[in-house]
Amino acid sequence: MSNCAEGLSTKQNIIQATMELIKTEGADQVTLRKITAAANVNLALVNYYFGSKDNLINEALKLLLTSFQANFSVLDDTSLHPKDRLKAFLLQYVELVLRYPGLLHEVLGKGRITFESRQDFTSFMKTTGFGKISGTLEEITGETDTEILYIMMMQINAAVLFPLVLSKQIKHLENRPGKEAVERQIDILFAHYFAKYESSR
Q1: φ and ψ at 115, to 5 degrees?
Q2: In 3D, which of 6, 201, 170, 184 has the Cα closest to residue 91?
Q3: In angstroms, what CA-CA distances link 71 with 55, 86, 92, 139, 157?
Q4: Rounded Cα distance, 68 and 124, in Å
Q5: 128-178, pLDDT tens digit by residue?
Q6: Is residue 173 within 8 Å of 181, Cβ to Cβ?
Q7: How far, CA to CA in Å, does 147 sit from each of 130, 139, 192?
């Protein structure tokens, strides 16, 4: 193996180990000692490839947020009914939150660290993400008032995420809802939430 390929493999290994730590512990709990142990490398290698822990955390979070942004592409799939598009997006969203529970905490600005990817993500949501979701909601409901669409977006998001947050906060709820339970929850939510609009269209 060439030095270049070996170096790339080592760098990817460090990022992957960091992403796994963010997944299990949240970004603000990740330490260099934990990273080096998980990646089975020494501190000098982490510094060589990334310069600092903050740079490494930022790069790992950027990769996670890029994968989250990719989930929005399903909202562009006009071969699907708008409700099916929104459901597919929410299921992907939930899957990512379940896989990386610390990520949502950081994106919302609740963590103890600051990273430049948060600004990039906020910008993406303002310029693209919110527009895609509200556009899909407009297709479903016929509603055109942007304030109402924003409120609907927040309500649906909260209704889907709240059980996941609750299961994490209450210690005796060891098992988080599985994909089937989340899908059923979304189906029930949509049936009630959009009933008014279906009967009037």
Answers
A1: -140, 145
A2: 184
A3: 25, 11, 6, 19, 15
A4: 11
A5: 888 999 999 999 999 999 999 999 999 998 898 877 766 655 544 455 567
A6: no
A7: 12, 16, 21
CB atoms within 10 A of CB 63: 15
Sorted by sequence, the CB contacts under 8 Å of residue 176 that are 6+ apart come out as 98, 164, 167, 168
Say how far apart CA 163 and CA 91 lie, in whole Å: 14
Give CA angle at 165 (161, 167), nearest 5°. Answer: 120
Exposure b/e, 80-112, CB count within 10 A at least 16 = b:
eebbebbbbbbbbbbebbbebbbbbbbbeeebe
Query: What residue has token string 């407009």?
Result: 138
> Tens digit of pLDDT for each residue in 23-64?
777 777 889 999 999 999 999 999 999 999 888 988 888 887
Collapsed DSSP state (helix, strand, coil) of residue 78: coil
DSSP 126: I
One-letter amino acid for residue 167 of the chain: S
N-term to C-term CA, the chain = 63
What distance in Å separates the CA atoms of residue 125 and residue 100, rounded to the nearest whole number? 19
Q: What is the DSSP letter of 170?
A: S
